[in-house]
Prior knowledge:
Layout: E1 3-11, H1 19-39, E2 42-47, E3 55-60, E4 63-68, E5 76-85, H2 89-97, E6 106-111
Antiparallel strand pairs: 1-5, 1-6, 2-5, 3-4
Amino acid sequence: MPQYMLLIYGPQGGGPQTPDELAAQHDAWMRVTQEMMEAGVHAGGNALEAIDTATTVRVRGGETVVSDGPFADTKELLGGYYILDVPDLDSALSWAARLPNVGYGSVEVRPVMVLADMPTAS
């Protein structure tokens, strides 16, 4: 079955703010994750730590350059991801529309590329 990655974005400083809003949002994320698991489509996923914990690595001219922060300055920040085993793009889009952040952020849905010669863990 094909896999799709749901990349979860939210605006800088946007989304739920009050303790009650944050608690409701947490509950909504736990609920949709549980629904994915019960449907047998959840193949993985995690939330990411705050953007100020990011480190970017580049190699230019044979020199490794490490810098604090994300690769690009954007208005929306990557906050987490899911990997789903679903039959098609429409199914992945349906799950993406159920994520709690779609009312104030966005979800990018991308198929996972299958490489026949990709090494796998034993």
